[in-house]
């Protein structure tokens, strides 16, 4: 059997990883400023993470949601504390798409409505509703197509107000990334997020903050939407939550009432996944990673802005987009091949930096030196 060929891959076989370094099968070291697509939050193979997961595996890896799993309650307690949302409730699942799927569904159960507002360039995942709320027709199958999702221009307050004026009492939810990741590191403005909050309050609509990529400390706030000073009704999360162990979740405001069978999953909230997520929160707290993210992120952004050939630097904390002129779209590839540095990309000319939240300024400097070298060679 061969693999179903859907990923354009780099011909590199990574066999070992530690902190922000990874090694291929020939022993060549790479610097990982991509974090496996914003997933590695506390660094590869963090000792506390390895120890917690190893111990858990020796005890029990999985049992279904038909029994008590105290680790789920511990995770909810720690997450409530770290995110500053003690009064929210936690539903655990396995991925970002699944988290958004459940968020959109829960909103619709809650207010009995069908319409969803999403925004241009949004990415919310590949399952049925999540992909329909994703602004990329190429990945939406005919079976997923529906008139229930309405796309509005990102950060356009007039268009949003107009949509609510026209059909506000039909809108079940508004879903928005605080910083669009796949869309090219574009930030929702503070006033836009506040407007969503006030329109949702006025019309009984659910505000869903997709924090799958921009959340879990990545911007220095726990959820990137926090900087607007308003609460969402539901936060979806995944990527950084398990530092590579598959886990997703939604954090749900007290206004929602749960009932048996309303949501569910076989694997969500299993012992191993909870142990991984708890280890991540332990490390985030003990090593003060939100502050480090802010600190190193501010430093990187300020330094990146000094490069003449960089057109724009976008993002916050350690979710940074470096916009280069179109003719320099080879730089990302060259950073990998010549400097052995993994980064992400949005369009070929936007380099996305999504490293572990515990990178140091020395690591940031290694990247800045390499970028300088690449830009000088252009
Ligand atoms: C903002 C956002 N939402 C949802 C998803 C989907 O997450 P997953 O790939 O875990 O299903 C992603 C993945 O890149 C994402 O960036």
Compile the SSE list and pairings.
Elements lengths: L13 E5 L2 E4 L4 E4 L2 H4 L8 H13 L10 H14 L5 E5 L2 H16 L3 E5 L8 H5 L16 E4 L4 H11 L3 E7 L1 E2 L5 E2 L2 H14 L2 E5 L23 E4 L10 E5 L18 H16 L2 H16 L7 E5 L2 E5 L7 H7 L3 E2 L1 E2 L4 E4 L7 H17 L1
Parallel strand pairs: 3-15, 5-6, 5-7, 7-10, 10-11
Antiparallel strand pairs: 1-2, 2-3, 4-12, 8-9, 11-12, 13-14, 14-17, 16-17
Helix pairs in contact: 2-8, 3-8, 6-7, 9-11
Bound molecules: pyridoxal-5'-phosphate.
The site of pyridoxal-5'-phosphate (PLP) has 14 residues, from helix 4.
Structure commentary:
The chain is an alpha/beta fold. It is 35% helix and 19% strand. Helix 2 packs antiparallel against helix 8, helix 3 (70-83) packs parallel to helix 8 and helix 9 packs parallel to helix 11 (361-377). It has two domains: 14-46 and 288-377, Alpha-Beta Complex (Aspartate Aminotransferase, domain 1); 47-286, Aspartate Aminotransferase, domain 2. The chain is built from eleven helices and 17 strands. A hairpin with a 4-residue loop joins strand 2 and strand 3 (29-32). Bound molecules: pyridoxal-5'-phosphate (PLP). Residues 95-97, 100, 123-125, 177, 181-182, 210, 212-213, 238 line the site of pyridoxal-5'-phosphate.
Sum this structure up briefly.
With 378 residues, the chain is of the alpha/beta class. It has eleven helices and 17 strands. β13 and β14 form a beta hairpin.
**CATH top level label of the largest domain:** Alpha Beta
Attached small molecules: pyridoxal-5'-phosphate
Q: How much of the residues is beta strand, in percent?
A: 15-25%
Dominant shape = globular
Residue share in helices? 25-40%
Number of domains: 2
Low-pLDDT parts are none
Task: Find the count of extended strands (DSSP E, 2+ residues).
Answer: 17
Mean pLDDT: 97
Termini Cα gap: 43 Å
Q: How many H/I helical runs?
A: 11
CATH architecture of the largest domain: 3-Layer(aba) Sandwich
Topology-level CATH name of the largest domain: Aspartate Aminotransferase, domain 2
């Amino acid at each position: 059997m061969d693999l179903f060929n859907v990923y354009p891959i780099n011909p590199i076989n990574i066999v070992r990883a530690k902190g922000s370094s990874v090694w291929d099968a020939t022993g060549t070291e790479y610097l990982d400023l991509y974090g496996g697509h914003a997933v590695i939050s506390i660094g590869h193979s963090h000792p506390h993470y390895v120890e917690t997961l190893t111990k858990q595996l020796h005890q029990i890896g999985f049992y279904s949601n038909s029994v008590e799993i105290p680790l789920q309650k511990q995770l909810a307690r720690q997450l409530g504390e770290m995110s500053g949302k003690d009064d929210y409730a936690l539903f655990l699942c396995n991925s970002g798409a699944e988290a958004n799927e459940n968020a959109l569904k829960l909103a619709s159960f809650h207010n009995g409505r069908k319409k969803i507002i999403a925004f241009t360039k949004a990415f919310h995942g590949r399952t049925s509703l999540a992909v329909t709320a994703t602004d990329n027709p190429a990945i939406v199958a005919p079976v997923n197509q529906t008139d229930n999702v309405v796309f509005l221009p990102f950060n356009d307050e007039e268009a949003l107000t107009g949509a609510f004026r026209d059909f506000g009492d039909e809108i079940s939810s508004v879903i928005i990334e605080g910083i669009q990741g796949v869309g090219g590191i574009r930030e929702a403005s503070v006033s836009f997020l506040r407007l969503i909050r006030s329109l949702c309050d006025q019309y009984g609509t659910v505000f869903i903050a997709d924090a799958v990529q921009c959340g879990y400390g990545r911007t220095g706030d726990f959820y990137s939407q926090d900087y607007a000073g308003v609460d969402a009704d539901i936060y979806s999360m995944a990527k950084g939550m398990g530092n590579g162990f598959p886990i997703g979740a939604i954090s749900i405001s007290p206004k929602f009432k749960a009932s048996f069978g309303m949501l569910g999953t076989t694997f969500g909230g299993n012992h191993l996944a909870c142990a991984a997520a708890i280890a991540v929160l332990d490390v985030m707290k003990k090593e003060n990673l939100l502050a480090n993210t802010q600190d190193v992120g501010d430093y990187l952004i300020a330094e990146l802005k000094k490069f003449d050939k960089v057109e724009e630097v976008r993002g916050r904390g350690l979710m940074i987009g470096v916009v280069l002129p179109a003719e320099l779209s080879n730089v990302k590839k060259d950073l990998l091949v010549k400097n052995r540095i993994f980064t992400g990309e949005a369009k070929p000319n936007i380099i996305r930096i999504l490293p572990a939240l515990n990178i140091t300024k020395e690591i940031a400097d290694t990247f800045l030196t390499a970028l300088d070298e690449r830009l000088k060679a252009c």
